[in-house]
C-alpha cells in the first residue's frame, strides 16, 4: 500500500458531499448476483436507485449499491471513458457490473486535466482517479466502522460489500452510502498494491459499445433540439485569401433558409487561447431549417474572395528570395518542396551537439547521406467538425466534440464577453480526434452564430469544408548523415530537420546519447497554411525517417538491424553521451527484444520484413512488419507489435488501440497526401484523398505488452509513428528500393510503371 | 417540394420535402434516426450505409424519391434489442474505437452475410472495402464478421 494526500479537488469534494441528501434504504447489494447491466438497457432502468449520494466529484453511490463513475476526459476513441472509471472502481472496490459510467461535465475545480491529447489521460489521471476511488472507499469503511463500533483496520471490502469478519457483520455500499457522505474527507488515503488489482489489468468492454452498435445518439452531430437551426459556413477557397463581398439574393429566397451573414470569429482585439487555431476568421454563414436545404442554398451563394496581402506578402518575399519567378504569395506543393530542399541543404540552428561531429565527418572514410520528406495531411475525423450552440440571455450552452473543453470555454468567454459560470460545455463522444479537435474554432463559430441568430443552432461542416479548412499535419523534411571510419564503424551522426511551418526534430531522442559525435539542427519555412497537432505530432514523420535511415545504415555496416539498434542502446545505457537523453535505453531495448522474439525474426521467412522502434509520449513501441509486393500492390501479412506502456489498464482495449495505431500509421505513410496549388487544397473528399481501407490493412496484427508494473503511460499515439519505418524497411526488402518520400504508394507504383 | 412516403424499419412515414433530399438527411433531420452517419456525402466512406430491400446502399446518394416504395432498414431497425448476430459479434470483439463508422460497417456486414453466409477473407475485404474506418479497426471488423458468420443464427 502507498499513502497519498487527498489534497486534489478537496474543496470540491466537500462541496459535493454537502449536496448529498438522505434516501430510502433498500435491499442488500442485490445487484451483485445479477449479470452485467448494460448502459441504457431496460434492465438497468429498472435497477436505478431512488437516491444518489455523492462521495466526491468522481462518483456517486445509489441506495441500491449502483455506482455512477464520471469519466473526466473527452472520449475520442482512445477508450478512456471505460479505462478511467476502471481505475476509480479498482480503488473503490466495487463490482464493475454495478458501475454506470457517465461523461463528466467540464469542471476544472474537481477534475485535473480534462483534455484529450498527448496520450496523457491515463498517465496524468492515474493518481487522481485512484485517489478518488480510495477516498470514497475510506469514507464508506469509516461509516461502517462507526455504525458497528469497530476498528476500520479490521474491515475488508470486496465487490461493493463491506465486511467485519470478527463480528460477522456485512453491509453493501448502497446501505452505507448515506452515512458515508457525512464522513469527513480524509487527509490521506492508502492506495492498493499492484498485485491486489482486480479490475485494472482485466479486459472490460467499451461502456458505449451497445449504443454504438445500435445507432443511438452519442456524437455531437447527433445533437437535436426542438427549434434548432442548421448553420454552415463558407470559407475562402485558398490559404492567403479572404472574404470580399457577396450576393445572397437568390440563396435567401430558397426554401428553409432563414439567414445569411458574415461573422468574424476571432476579431483582432480578441485575446486568443493556444487552442484558437483557425484558418479563416471571417466566414460567410448560411442558416436554415435542414441540412440539405442549407447545402443546396449554399451552392447559390455568389461570394467574391480576394488576396489578403497581409497574409501573402511574406510568402511572396520568401518565394522571391528562393529565386522563384512566379511568386504570388499563394502556396503550392512544388514551391513547398523546393523551399524545404533548399532549407534542408544549409546549416541551421544547432539544437544539440555532442563531441566534435565536424571533425569526425572530415575524417570519415565514408559518409552516408539520405533525405526524407512527407506531405501535409488532413486529420479527416470520420465525424466532420460540428457543434451545437444555444446562446441567449447571457448564457451559452454548447454541446459537441471537443478535445480541449477547458480552453474552448475561455475562448467563448473572451469572444462573447460571458461569465465563465454561464458557459456550459457538454462533451459528446467524438467521431475521431487525432488532434484536430484540440482547435475549437468551430465551437467558437457556433457560439457566435447562435448569438447572432438568437436561436439554438448546430454548425455542420461538410467533408469538403472539413478537409479544406486547414489545421493540417505540417509537411516535413529531414536529412541524416552518418560518418563511418575505415573499419566501417559509426563515428558521427548528423540530423538536419525542418518543415512547414515547424520542425519535426527531437534532438534528445535516440540515437542521441548513443553516438560520441552528434549534431542536430533545426529550421522552419513560414506558411499561411494553418497546422496543428496530428496524432503523435512530429514523431509521426521523424520516427519513420529515422528508423529507415538506421535500417540503411545497419545494412551499410553489415549488421542485423535489430542487433545494430541494441548495440547502440547498450552504449546509451552503459556510457551515455551528453545530457538530457530523453528515453530509457533499457525499456527501448526491451520492446525490440520482445518484438524480435515474438515475430521469429531470426527464423527464415518468405516475407519481406522490416523492423522499427520508437519512443514517444512516454511509451515504447517496436514493430516488425511482414509483407509482399505483388503487381504494384503492397500486401501486408502481419505486424508484430511490442509495447511498453507500463501497467496495461484494459488489455483488450489497449490491443485495439495498438492495432488501430498500426493500421493508421501504415495508411498515412502509404496513401495519404494533401497537396496545394495557388494556395488551394487539391483534395477535398475521399475520392481524391486516400485513406487506408479494409483490403489494404494487415491480415494480422499481434500485440505484446511488456509486463513491468510501472505506472501506466498512454497508447493513443505511440503505435502510430514507428510502423512507418517498419513499412519502409519491409518495402525495401520486397522491392530492392528505398522509400524516402511519403506517401510511399507513389514511389512504389511509379517505379513499377516505368 | 413533394409528398413522399417512405417505409423505414417497417413503418410508413410521410414527408413534404424536396424529392432530391438524400435519404441520409431524411433519416437524420426529419426522423431523428441519427445512427446512420454523415461522413463524406459522396458515397466514398460508407458511414451512411442502410439496407435498400436488403442490399447495402449509401443513403447519402439515394434521393428520397428513389427510396419511396422500397423497404429501408437502418441500424436502429436491424434488430429489436440490439441482438442481431452481427451486433453481438461486434460486442464480443469490442470492435469500436471512436465508433462513428461502425453502424455503416455493421450494415454492410449484415448485407454481406445475408447473401453470403460464409464469406472468405477476400470476399469480406471486397464487400467491406467501401467502408472506411479512420481508427483502423479493420482486423477486428473482419474477426467479428467471421464470428457472426459461424454463429447458428445467420
Q: What report would you give on this structure?
A:
The complex is a heterodimer of chains A (754) and B (154). Chain A folds into three domains: 2-214, Aldehyde Oxidoreductase, domain 4 (2-Layer Sandwich), CATH 3.30.365; 220-308 and 385-460, Aldehyde oxidase/xanthine dehydrogenase, molybdopterin binding domain (Aldehyde Oxidoreductase, domain 4, 2-Layer Sandwich), CATH 3.30.365; 475-753, Aldehyde Oxidoreductase, domain 4. Helices cover 31% and strands 24% of the residues of chain A. Chain A has 20 helices and 29 strands. Chain A has a seven-stranded mixed β-sheet, sandwiched between helices. In chain A, strands 15-23-22-21-16 form a five-stranded mixed β-sheet, with helices on both faces. In chain A, a hairpin with a 2-residue loop joins strand 27 and strand 28 (680-681). In chain A, helix 4 (121-148) crosses helix 5 (173-181), helix 15 (539-556) crosses helix 19 and helix 16 runs antiparallel to helix 17. Chain A is globular and about 80 Å long. Mean pLDDT of chain A is 93; it is low at 8-37. Chain B folds into two domains: 2-74, Beta-grasp domain (Ubiquitin-like (UB roll)); 85-149, [2Fe-2S]-binding domain (DNA polymerase, domain 1), CATH 1.10.150.120. Chain B contains six helices and five strands. Chain B has helices at residues 23-30, 64-67, 85-92, 102-115, 121-128, 138-150; strands at 2-8, 11-17, 49-52, 55-58, 71-73. The chains are: A alpha+beta (754), B alpha+beta (154). The interface between A and B is large, with 67 and 61 residues.
Amino acid at each position: 500500500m502507498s499513502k497519498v494526500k487527498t489534497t486534489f479537488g478537496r474543496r470540491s469534494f466537500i462541496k459535493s458531499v454537502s449536496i448529498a441528501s438522505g434516501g430510502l434504504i433498500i435491499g442488500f447489494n442485490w445487484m451483485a448476483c445479477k449479470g452485467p447491466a448494460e448502459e441504457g438497457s431496460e434492465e438497468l432502468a429498472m435497477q436505478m436507485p431512488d437516491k444518489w449520494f455523492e462521495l466526491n466529484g468522481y462518483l456517486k453511490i445509489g441506495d441500491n449499491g449502483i455506482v455512477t463513475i464520471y469519466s473526466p476526459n473527452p472520449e475520442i476513441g482512445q477508450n478512456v471513458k471505460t479505462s478511467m472509471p476502471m481505475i476509480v472502481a479498482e480503488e473503490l472496490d466495487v463490482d464493475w457490473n454495478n458501475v454506470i459510467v457517465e461523461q463528466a461535465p467540464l469542471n476544472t475545480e474537481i477534475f485535473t486535466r480534462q483534455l484529450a491529447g498527448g496520450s496523457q489521460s491515463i498517465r496524468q489521471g492515474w493518481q487522481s482517479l485512484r485517489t478518488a476511488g480510495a477516498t470514497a472507499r475510506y469514507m464508506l469503511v469509516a461509516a461502517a466502522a462507526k455504525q458497528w463500533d469497530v476498528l476500520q483496520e479490521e474491515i475488508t471490502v470486496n465487490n461493493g460489500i463491506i465486511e467485519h469478519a470478527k463480528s460477522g457483520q456485512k453491509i453493501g455500499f448502497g446501505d452505507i452510502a448515506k452515512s458515508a457522505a457525512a464522513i469527513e474527507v480524509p487527509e490521506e488515503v492508502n492506495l492498493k498494491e499492484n498485485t491486489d488489482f482486480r479490475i485494472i489489468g482485466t479486459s472490460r468492454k467499451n461502456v458505449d459499445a451497445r449504443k454504438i452498435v445500435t445507432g443511438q445518439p452519442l456524437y455531437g452531430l447527433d445533437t437535436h433540439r426542438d427549434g434548432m437551426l442548421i448553420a454552415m459556413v463558407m470559407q475562402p477557397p485558398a490559404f492567403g485569401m479572404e472574404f470580399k463581398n457577396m450576393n445572397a439574393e437568390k440563396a435567401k429566397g430558397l426554401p428553409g433558409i432563414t439567414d445569411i451573414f458574415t461573422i468574424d470569429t476571432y476579431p483582432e482585439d480578441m485575446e486568443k487561447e493556444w487552442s484558437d487555431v483557425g484558418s479563416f476568421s471571417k466566414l460567410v454563414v448560411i442558416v436554415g431549417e435542414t441540412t440539405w436545404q442549407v447545402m443546396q442554398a449554399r451552392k447559390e451563394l455568389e461570394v467574391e474572395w480576394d488576396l489578403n496581402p497581409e497574409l501573402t506578402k511574406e510568402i511572396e518575399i520568401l518565394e522571391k528570395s528562393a529565386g522563384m519567378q512566379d511568386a504570388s504569395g499563394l502556396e503550392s506543393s512544388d514551391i513547398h518542396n523546393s523551399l524545404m530542399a533548399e532549407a534542408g541543404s544549409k546549416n541551421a540552428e544547432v539544437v544539440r551537439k555532442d563531441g566534435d561531429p565536424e571533425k569526425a565527418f572530415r575524417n570519415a572514410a565514408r559518409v552516408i547521406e539520405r533525405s526524407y520528406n512527407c506531405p501535409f495531411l488532413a486529420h479527416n475525423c470520420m465525424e466532420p467538425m460540428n457543434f451545437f450552440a444555444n446562446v441567449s440571455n447571457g448564457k451559452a450552452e454548447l454541446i459537441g466534440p471537443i478535445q480541449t473543453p477547458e480552453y474552448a470555454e475561455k475562448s467563448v468567454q473572451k469572444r462573447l464577453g460571458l461569465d465563465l459560470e454561464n458557459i456550459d460545455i457538454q462533451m459528446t463522444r467524438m467521431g475521431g480526434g487525432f488532434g484536430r479537435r484540440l482547435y475549437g474554432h468551430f465551437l467558437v463559430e457556433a457560439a457566435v452564430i447562435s448569438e447572432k441568430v438568437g436561436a439554438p443552432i448546430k454548425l455542420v461542416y461538410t467533408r469538403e469544408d472539413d478537409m479544406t479548412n486547414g489545421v493540417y499535419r505540417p509537411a516535413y523534411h529531414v536529412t541524416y548523415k552518418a560518418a563511418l571510419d575505415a573499419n566501417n564503424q559509426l563515428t558521427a551522426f548528423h540530423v538536419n530537420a525542418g518543415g512547414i511551418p515547424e520542425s519535426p526534430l527531437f534532438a534528445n531522442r535516440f540515437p542521441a546519447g548513443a553516438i560520441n559525435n552528434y549534431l542536430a539542427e533545426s529550421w522552419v519555412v513560414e506558411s499561411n497554411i494553418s497546422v496543428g497537432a496530428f496524432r503523435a505530432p512530429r514523431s509521426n514523420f521523424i520516427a519513420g525517417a529515422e528508423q529507415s535511415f538506421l535500417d540503411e545504415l545497419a545494412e551499410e555496416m553489415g549488421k542485423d538491424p535489430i542487433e545494430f539498434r541494441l548495440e547502440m542502446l547498450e552504449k546509451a545505457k552503459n556510457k551515455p553521451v551528453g545530457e538530457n537523453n530523453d528515453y530509457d535505453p533499457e525499456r527501448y531495448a526491451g520492446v525490440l527484444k520482445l518484438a524480435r522474439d515474438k515475430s521469429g525474426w531470426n527464423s527464415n521467412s518468405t516475407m519481406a520484413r522490416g523492423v522499427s522502434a520508437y519512443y514517444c509520449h512516454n511509451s515504447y513501441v517496436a514493430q516488425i512488419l511482414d509483407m509482399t509486393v505483388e503487381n504494384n500492390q503492397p500486401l501486408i501479412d502481419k505486424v508484430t507489435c511490442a509495447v511498453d506502456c507500463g501497467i496495461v489498464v484494459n488489455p483488450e482495449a489497449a490491443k485495439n488501440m495498438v492495432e488501430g495505431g498500426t493500421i493508421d500509421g501504415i495508411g498515412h505513410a502509404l496513401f495519404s497526401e494533401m497537396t496545394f496549388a495557388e494556395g488551394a487544397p487539391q483534395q477535398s473528399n475521399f475520392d481524391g484523398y486516400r485513406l487506408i481501407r479494409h483490403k489494404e490493412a494487415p491480415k494480422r496484427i499481434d500485440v505484446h505488452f511488456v509486463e513491468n508494473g510501472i505506472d501506466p503511460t498512454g497508447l493513443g499515439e505511440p503505435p502510430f509513428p514507428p510502423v512507418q519505418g517498419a513499412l519502409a524497411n519491409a518495402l525495401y526488402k520486397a522491392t530492392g528500393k528505398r522509400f524516402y518520400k511519403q506517401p510511399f504508394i507513389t514511389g512504389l507504383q511509379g517505379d513499377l510503371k516505368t | 417540394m413533394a409528398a413522399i412516403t417512405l417505409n423505414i424499419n417497417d413503418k410508413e412515414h410521410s414527408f413534404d420535402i424536396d424529392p432530391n433530399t438524400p435519404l441520409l438527411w431524411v433519416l437524420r433531420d426529419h426522423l431523428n434516426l441519427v445512427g446512420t452517419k454523415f461522413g463524406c456525402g459522396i458515397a466514398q466512406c460508407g458511414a451512411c450505409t442502410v439496407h435498400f430491400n436488403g442490399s447495402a446502399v449509401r443513403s447519402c446518394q439515394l434521393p428520397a424519391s428513389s427510396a419511396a416504395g422500397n423497404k429501408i432498414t437502418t441500424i436502429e431497425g436491424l434488430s429489436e434489442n440490439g441482438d442481431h448476430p452481427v451486433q453481438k459479434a461486434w460486442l464480443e470483439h469490442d470492435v469500436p474505437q471512436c465508433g462513428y463508422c461502425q453502424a455503416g460497417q455493421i450494415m454492410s456486414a449484415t448485407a454481406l452475410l445475408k447473401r453470403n453466409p460464409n464469406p472468405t477473407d477476400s470476399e469480406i475485404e471486397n464487400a467491406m472495402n467501401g467502408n472506411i474506418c479512420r481508427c483502423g479497426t479493420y482486423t477486428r471488423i473482419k474477426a467479428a464478421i467471421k464470428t457472426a458468420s459461424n454463429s447458428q443464427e445467420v
